Amino acid sequence: MLLAKVKGNIVSTQKNQHLKGHKLLIAQKIGLDGNYIGKNDFIALDLVSAGIGDTVLVVQEGAAVKQILGHKNAPVHTMIVAVVDKINIS
Fold this sequence. Notes:
single chain; mainly beta; CATH 2.40.50.220; 5-stranded mixed β-barrel
């Protein structure tokens, strides 16, 4: 799993039938300090109603995504599984 910040939405007129009704977001990996890591964005399936500017917890593993969705038919590798309210490091 990794932390990321949502940067934008994906709007698609055509989708795989198993993605219909699901929101796709653009995000970028961040560190614990909230700063972006690297320069690459990625697309993630959103099941937790995240929005632009939200810090999110992302899983990037096909087997985990299949387990969460309950089937293996969706062409998904990356999924937002939580919106992070606060990070506290002791």
